[in-house]
Design goal:
heterodimer; A: mainly alpha; 11 helices; 69% helix; 1% strand; B: 660 residues; mainly alpha; 4 domains; two-stranded antiparallel sheet
Chain lengths: 307, 660
């Protein structure tokens, strides 16, 4: 019960700090002082108190999408193991529901973008659909590798199964961390896939899809987007977080990994430029190839006797 | 069994009544009797489907047939239930649909007669376990659906599609006749019950016989590369016929494959992997071709190929489980395949009904000419979007549940200790995920372009939701999709007895752990719905005193926007099409602008089908060229035909005289 409450608090509390931390790191890297870390949280609260402007070309789908997408991300978050290696909702094969429920949120966000009738938003929607779609097969291949390594078929059981010290599986562990980091960059629409700070609609992906949302809807979307990043970052934490650790230690490791991932996103964003749109699929295939290597390594370890 | 047979008789009687009754009563009489028949069939089939018991009678037919066993085992009963559901709803939808469409070339009476014949033969084909009788009823099914495809026979494309369908079906039935004859010659009896023993005989080429039967049934089901009739026939038929054909008739092919599997015993690993490979190719190519289409019904037809592929992947996983002697994997694979049969018949019928409602109002199937329908047809659009989410396998709808069962079979394979099984299972998971996201791209395209935004062309007057006879079947299907998605732990009991019967002699626990997992999924679905409702309520609460203004979509400062500036379906699909163009056989027709003041420029693109271009056309071309050498025989002059007759008679007489 305590673990459950703690995890809910982490899931609900971290997202806006996570986004603030990324911005802070970027500002520091650029030599600026930067906004305070809770700034995105304050922006969200302010948006919640505002009215809305809604385009007359839209239909009820446009108004439904932000709430449904946030609910989907929340449900996905409930299934990810956080502190103590436990998820609030866990069952065998929960990772399938995790991936599909995130896809449900995406489905409605894409529809909302198409609903505005704007060409820019359609363009962003088309790109989002493709790029984040290419992540999914790789995600399942990584999970296949994790399950083959540990014989466990739930998130909470499978994620720590590469933590066997000193051996071939360390390679798989490193590749797994890299893959989930790529997944975070794609799902969170960060550089080099998408630049959240760009000002040209033609080159945006996520930002252009939400151009016409305002008020509480925009707050839901921004909170949901940040939570999606935290959820994927928590997968990285799950890979490295020791299973046998006591709750407090596990929570500290989790928070430290989240902070480190945020810092890494900030650094990547500061030192690289975004890729050309036509090259983004190749970047995503990096994750797919990693996933194949992970699976191969695990099979060698388990059946080939290579240690 | 009595209920089942009475139900079939009622459906047939409805068709015959539609022939003789006056015009205004035809449709209603058929719909009422089909409903009564469907209820009777369900009453007869629920027992065997839920309890797993087998009901059996033997009908003594004329000399030709001898004893015809009619068997309602769990497998047959499950398919009968799914067929009854689709046929009853199709009858009501058809009533409204034909009333609204312009007078076609075919009479209403004939249409409903063939609809009754198709429904009755589909129901009967599940229960008949006699090779010759099965083939004859199978042929009734193909012919009656051929006449239904011909409903709008005044259009050339309809006639072409119908003949394409007819020929495909007969290629299939030839394979089936060959396979069944071979089996019958070995077992000495046309009774299906005797075939299983034949497969167990040493040195029997069981893999090849299964392959021939798989090909024969696979043409009906629409597996790649034998699927080319589907994307022609479904757009040509009226929507309720498309829904019945795509929703359930092609599943009789799946039924046939599963029936053959029960004879096969333990399948070979190679055979299982081959089935899995064909199914995966069908799923992936089906959805890729679907994304390239902008004709709403052709797009849905390609999605049938995709979903047949998903069902086949479930069957493949089940076969792998059988071949490795792992009963849980086999059960999950077959249960996923069977549940997907039911689920696909629900959401595909819903989508075809939605497409039909749109076609009747706009008289176009091209989604680039639609747009903004959510405003004028809110109910249809909402249900179409729900059906789209279901076909993409998104929770909390039914498509997710059957895909989850196949995933569950796959991850049970991954934790096994057989390397080929682990690799195949990982491949299944990745392929399922890829198919899912491609379907998502396809249906966000359709929903976004056709139903959302602004109308892309001026719409004719009177665009509105269809009348109750059409919208109620859609509501029922939408409710079923949500019901199975939210209460999967109850719905799976409909497929477990049939799936258990597929697992042959392998022992399975009475209480299955997967039911508990499904209960967790049900809880998650409720949480999702609750959270959404909560957030919507909170949003409404926050906005209660705040201004909500209407202002045009952000247009980058440009003031003269028109609906034509909206993102088109082609543009939406373009990034993906770039990645997959090698399999598309894309035909481009480009006229470049030339000179300083170009006067004209044009571009046309047509997505093709590599199987049609590289496999079907060369083969049919070869046959055509061969046959052309004999055209001189058909001269058109009466004298020569009389000569042919005379020569034939003389030759026959000589032959007869020669034989003692």
């Amino acid at each position: 019960m305590l673990t459950c409450l703690l995890n809910l608090a982490i899931l609900l509390g971290c997202p806006l700090l996570f986004a603030g931390l990324i911005n802070r790191v970027k500002a520091r890297w650029a030599g600026r002082r930067g906004a305070p870390i809770p700034q995105p949280a304050r922006d969200c609260l302010r948006l919640l108190r505002k009215g809305q402007v809604i385009s007359p070309s839209t239909t009820p789908v446009f108004r439904l999408a932000p709430s449904l997408s946030l609910a989907a991300v929340l449900l996905a978050g409930l299934m990810v193991p956080l502190a103590g290696g436990e998820a609030v909702l866990s069952f065998e094969g929960d990772f399938v529901l995790f991936a599909y429920v995130l896809a449900l949120g995406k489905f409605f966000q894409i529809l909302a973008a198409m609903d505005t009738g704007s060409s820019f938003e359609g363009m962003g929607a088309s790109r989002e659909a493709l790029f984040s779609g290419l992540v999914e097969p790789a995600f399942f291949l990584i999970l296949a590798g994790l399950m083959a390594a540990g014989g466990q078929t739930s998130f909470a059981g499978a994620l720590p199964s590469l933590q066997i010290s000193g051996g071939l599986l360390q390679v798989a562990l490193v590749l797994g961390v890299i893959s989930f980091f790529v997944m975070l960059l794609v799902e969170g629409c960060r550089v080099p896939v998408d630049d959240p700070n760009t000002h040209l609609e033609l080159t945006m992906i996520h930002e252009v899809m939400v151009l016409d949302h305002s008020g509480p809807d925009l707050a839901f979307i921004q909170y949901g987007a940040a939570m999606k990043m935290v959820v994927v970052a928590a997968l990285i934490a799950g890979l490295v977080n020791p299973v046998a650790a006591p709750l407090w230690l596990s929570a500290i490791v989790l928070l430290a990994v989240l902070a480190a991932v945020a810092a890494a996103v900030g650094v990547v964003e500061s030192i690289t430029a975004r890729l050309r749109m036509s090259h983004v699929p190749q970047f995503v295939f990096l994750m797919t190839s990693n996933a194949c290597v992970i699976l191969a390594v695990v099979l060698l370890w388990r059946f080939g006797g290579v240690r | 069994m009595e209920f089942f047979l009475c139900g079939i008789a009622l459906v047939l009687a409805g068709g015959v009544l539609a022939l003789v009754l006056p015009e205004r009563w035809k449709a209603r009489a058929y719909a009422l009797l089909a409903t009564a028949g469907g209820v009777a069939v369900a009453a007869g089939a629920f027992g065997p489907a839920l309890s797993g018991q087998t009901v059996r009678t033997v009908v003594h037919f004329a000399r030709v047939f001898g004893e015809v066993p009619l068997v309602l085992d769990p497998l047959a009963a499950f398919f009968a239930l799914a067929i009854a559901l689709t046929c009853v709803l199709g009858a009501w939808y058809g009533l409204g649909y034909l009333r609204l469409s312009p007078e076609g070339g075919q009479s209403r009476g004939g249409h409903f007669f063939f609809l009754g014949l198709l429904s009755a033969s589909m129901l009967l084909v599940t229960a008949v376990q006699h090779a010759l009788a099965f083939l004859i009823i199978w042929e009734f099914m193909s012919l009656s659906s051929f006449f239904l495809v011909l409903t709008e026979q005044e259009k050339d494309e309809v006639v072409e599609a119908a003949y394409n369908y007819l020929i495909s079906m007969h290629v299939g039935v030839v394979l089936l006749i060959g396979g069944f004859l071979f089996l019958q010659s070995r077992s000495g009896s046309p009774d299906f019950g005797s075939f299983a023993a034949v497969f167990q005989v040493k040195d029997f080429p069981s893999g090849w016989v299964f392959a021939v039967l798989f090909a024969g049934f696979g043409i009906k089901a629409g597996f790649v590369p034998l699927h080319t009739w589907l994307p022609r026939a479904h757009p040509a038929a009226p929507s309720h016929v498309s829904a019945i054909m795509s929703g359930i008739m092609i599943k009789t092919g799946i039924y046939g494959i599963l029936r053959c599997l029960t004879w096969l015993g333990t399948p070979d690993t190679g055979l299982s992997l081959a089935v899995l490979g064909i199914a995966t190719a069908s799923a992936l190519l089906g959805v890729v071709y679907a994304i390239a289409q902008h004709d709403l019904k052709r797009l849905l037809a390609y999605h049938s190929v995709e979903n047949i592929g998903l069902i086949g992947m479930g069957i493949g996983v089940g076969m792998l489980g059988l071949s490795y002697g792992l009963p849980m994997i086999a059960l999950l694979g077959f249960a996923g395949a069977l549940l997907h049969v039911l689920n696909h018949s629900i959401f595909k019928a819903l989508l075809f009904y939605g497409a039909g409602a749109v076609y009747q109002r706009l008289h176009t199937r091209n989604i680039e000419n639609m747009g903004g329908l959510a405003r004028s047809m809110p109910l249809t659009s909402g249900l179409f979007i729900a059906g789209s989410a279901a076909i993409c396998g998104l929770p909390p709808l039914n498509g997710f549940i059957s895909e989850f069962l196949i995933y569950a079979g796959a991850f049970s394979g991954i934790v096994s200790n057989r390397v080929p099984l682990v690799l195949a299972s990982a491949g299944v998971m990745a392929a399922l995920a890829l198919v899912g996201v491609l379907a998502l791209i396809c249906f966000t395209k359709v929903c976004g372009v056709a139903f959302l935004g602004l109308p892309r062309q001026p719409q004719p007057a009177g665009v509105a939701d269809p009348p109750a006879s059409m919208s109620i079947p859609m509501l029922v299907l939408g409710g079923l999709a949500l019901g199975i998605g939210v209460g999967p732990q109850l719905a799976v009991h409909l497929v477990f007895p049939a799936a258990r019967s597929m697992c042959g002699g392998l022992s399975l626990p009475a209480r299955l752990q997967v039911v508990d997992i499904l209960a967790d999924i049900s809880l998650a679905a409720l949480i999702l719905l609750g959270l959404t409702a909560g957030l919507l309520a909170w949003r409404a609460f926050l906005l209660r005193h705040r201004p909500v203004e209407a202002f045009r979509t952000w247009d980058c400062g440009y003031q003269a926007g028109t609906p034509r500036m909206q993102y088109t379906a082609s543009s939406f699909a373009a990034p993906l099409m770039e990645l997959v163009h090698p399999v598309l056989a894309f035909e481009k027709n480009l006229e470049r602008p030339a000179g300083l003041f170009p006067e004209s420029a044009s571009y046309q693109g047509h997505p093709g089908n590599i199987f049609e271009a590289w496999l079907i056309k060369p083969v049919t071309g070869l046959i055509h060229r061969f046959m052309e050498r004999f055209t001189w025989i058909q001269s058109g002059s009466t004298q020569r035909y009389i000569l042919y007759g005379l020569v034939f008679l003389v030759v026959t007489l000589l032959v007869l005289a020669g034989t003692p």
